Amino acid sequence: LGELSLGGLLRPVRGALPAALACGRQGRSLILPRENALEAGLASRCEAFAAGSLLEVAAALGGQAALKTVSRPSEMGDRQTRETAPDLAEVRGQQQAKRVLEIAAAGNHSFLMQGPPGSGKSMLANRLAGILPPLTEDEALEVAAVQSISVQGFCPERWGERPYRSPHHTSSGVALVGGGSIPRPGEITLAHHGVLFLDELPEFDRRVLEVLREPMETGHITISRAARQADFPSRFQLVAAMNPCPCGYLGDSSGRCRCTTEQVQRYVGRISGPLMDRIDLQISVPRVGQSELMNAAPVAETSAAVRARVIAARQRQYLRRQKPNAQLAVDELDEDAALDADSRRLLEQALTRFALSARALHRTRRVARTIADLQGLDNVASSHVSEALSYRLQ
What we know:
Elements: E1 3-4, E2 10-11, H1 16-26, E3 29-33, H2 37-40, E4 47-51, H3 54-61, E5 68-69, H4 95-107, E6 111-114, H5 121-126, H6 137-149, E7 164-165, H7 173-177, E8 178-179, E9 184-185, H8 187-190, E10 195-198, H9 206-210, H10 213-218, E11 220-224, E12 229-233, E13 237-242, H11 261-268, H12 273-277, E14 281-284, H13 290-294, H14 303-321, H15 330-336, H16 341-354, H17 358-374, H18 382-390
Parallel strand pairs: 3-4, 6-13, 6-14, 7-10, 10-13
Antiparallel strand pairs: 1-2, 4-5, 8-9, 11-12
Helix pairs in contact: 4-14, 4-17, 16-18, 17-18
């Protein structure tokens, strides 16, 4: 695998890691350029050899010389979580938002923050990666394989890190989900096993946002073209932020909002009901008070402390189902989050009063299951259901 120059040299190409993984699964050997040896070495089951030119390959096949065997890089042998994300302790106030951030991280739930400019929505989103559990070996390989076929290419310095993608609201549908004459991965694939942050959500083109609906449910996206079809993984965690109105100050204590009801409805209506229905947690993020901003910063929980609880909750989920709660099927939900009489009554009242859909009902139960896991409890109680409902009805 490689690009052959006119002088007979082997030049590096994209996709060396996925090719090495495929060769390992099929029990085949792989010869590739030296520049691709680092990423190919991550595929431990593949017998790979590095060559600098076609003459070296010919000599090796003729038994005249041996090619260098590609081995796993020693600096990547013991993968460690890198402390690259900013610390949660830097965020002033916003205790409810921090609580939702922890729940979202523990259960891999999507969430939406709505609030005026400067309330801390982007700060909170940027700190989600710092409280997520470390990637498993298989997850890290999947992330590296996606990087290998992307435009940016494989980055050894980011090995073992969860991706964090924040595309601009002017991004097209192809940029978001992938495409092109030769299908390439989009932002949702580049955020595989990581975070996809969509700031100023209503400013995205509505047709662009609608393409998120299917991959949010299935965890993959299929790009079909006349000549070929490509299936990309897209198990991302969606985090979105938006203002409550076009000017951003609806309901703010300053009273400076002058948006009409029609303008507000048109602005919020840019996000379709089916997409909102797929977002597990939806909260309001008000402005932080003047006293909290100006006074000395109080001692707050660090990302490391929150991450410890998140890891413990995620371990409970994997011992139970080998996947996070956000991916539980309905029949699995009935077993793992069985409702008692009080919980059933709460959900029935919410269904009647707020016209929750069946999807919203199931997502609420998944969030309740995560809240119980954060407390180390086996059963879901009415208090967990009540808290989960409060994050959808704001």
